[in-house]
Amino acid sequence: MDFRKICGFALGLFGAIMMWRSGMAVAEYFDENGTSDITRILFNPDYSLRMLAAMAAFLAGLAALTERRGGSWLAGLSAFLLLIQTMAILAGRGSVYFWQAEAAFMIIVTCLFLSLVAMNGGKAREEAKKEAEAAA
Asked: How far apart are CA 62 and CA 128, in angstroms?
């Protein structure tokens, strides 16, 4: 198993864990506020950006694991969404616990994103080298 597949598996697992945490947060929100205001939770950055980032991380992991194109950029989108969410929590003067957890998630996803990009660059260089040797 190569490093790209390991990163893909880690991203997929991490995306699933983030989705589980998001689901638990939504369940707590419904328990406290009732289910009548579902549109409010969809536009609340504490929940919606986390769910979108988790889905992007999970799909990036699947794409990298199955060696499809675009997995690294989905991981980048996930890291960017987590950055926006962390900044939104900080701007709203949220609890240190919440933004600290999101910042840790963002760092992990960013590291996996950068490792996938580095793997793609190395793979592209190897393919270009083989094409140059075949042409010569």
From this structure: 26
